Amino acid sequence: MYAHQIETEKILAEKLVELGKTSGFEFSKDDQITALN
Amino acid sequence: MSKDNVKQMFAKMEKDAGFQKKYADLMLAYQREAEKSMAEKLLEFGKISGFEFSKDDLMAARSELMEKVNENKELSDKDLTSVAGGSGITNKEYGATLSACSLGLGCALASVSMEVLRGSGGCGSYLSSTGTADCTE
To answer: Is B54 part of the contact surface with chain A (CB cutoff 8 Å)?
Structure first.
């Protein structure tokens, strides 16, 4: 379960980075984490 | 790179219906991928643990559980044990797993995101892959 969660969170983060990139909002995975904290 | 861009992107979602749709489509694709991956991992885990079942068996068991949840029937320890695989998994952990499987991790993460950015996230409302604000607390 934990491995699955890590894997899917990584995929989700990558998808969000890609969405941001194609929409004019460039940010990294680390930026996502920082924004949530 | 900037965390402000993350916030601005989610802020745009509040105002731009087209962008919301784009995000919802992305989440739906992600949810399907995640569920497929999880089903494969559970099948493999069952196999190596002496509990062989198919993906259809898994989906049928999940449907039964979701029906119970939707009927507001409280899941008994026996229900949880039979699906979760025995002791060692608490109700809380099982609930989190069931939630991640059935509602999608994306929805959960989106809820957290919106809670932080807007002060209220509900169940991800429009950020969920279903695009609904239906919350099953």
So the answer is: no
Residue B6 forms contact with A (CB below 8 Å):
yes
State the Cα–Cα distance between residues B73 and B84, nearest whole angstrom.
18
Q: How far is A3 from chain B (nearest CA, A)?
A: 10
Q: How far off is chain B from A10, nearest CA to CA, in Å? A: 11
Reference A5, options A13, B116, B131; nearest CA is A13
What residue segments make up the domains of chain B, in order of their start?
17-104
Whether ipTM tops 0.90, in short, is no
Q: In chain A, how many domains are there?
A: 1
- pLDDT tens digits along B14-71: 899 999 999 999 999 998 888 888 899 999 999 999 999 999 999 899 888 888 888 8
